[in-house]
Amino acid sequence: MMKRVLLGLLLVGSGGLVGCSSTGDTSDEVVNPDLIVVEEVKPEVTDDASTSAASRANSADSEKLNAQKAVATYTGHPLDNPASPLARKVVYFDFDQSVINDEDKVTLNAHADYLIANPVAHVRLEGHADERGTREYNVALGERRAGAVKRYLTLKGVAASQLNMISYGEERPAKRGHDEGSWALNRRVELVYTKR
Question: Which pLDDT tens digit goes with each residue over 42-62?
Fold first, then answer.
C-alpha cells in the first residue's frame, strides 16, 4: 500500500526550514517524531477491466462505422473498394490443409453476397500449393482447396454455374522462396473475376 509521508516540520522560533538555511547554518535542531504526519493514501478505485473493455468496444464500433462509411462513399466498382472485404480476393490455408479459416469466411461471405446479387458475375477459383510435396500431390491439393471454396460459396447460395475451378499446384507461386513466409503466401485460392 502506498504511503505518502508528509513531514510536518514545525520550526519553533527559528523562522526557517530545517536544513534549508540560506546562511549555511547546520543547526542541531531535532525534529520531534510526534510532528511527523504519516498520511495513508488509498489508490483510486477504478474498474480498469470494464473501462478498457468499454473503450475497446467503442473503438471497434467506431472502426466498423468508419469502414461502413468508406464502403458507402466509394464511387468505384464494389470489387475494387479497398475498404470492402470484396477487395480481398485471396484466401490462405495452413500447411497441407484445405480447411477455410474463420477470417477468410468473412471475405467469402462478402463475395457470396456479391455473386448472389450479381448473377451475371463469374469467378474462377485458382487453387495453389507451396513447393513441398510432389507435383501431382500439389495439383490435387490445389484442387481440394479450390473445391473447398466452391463448396462454401455454393452453400451460401451462389449458383455453381458462376464458379469455375482450376488447380495450378505449385506452378504459380505468389512468392518465390524456400522459407515458411513464402510457402504461407503460396498456399492459397485466388478468386479471379472473369465477369463482374
Answer: 555 556 656 666 776 777 777
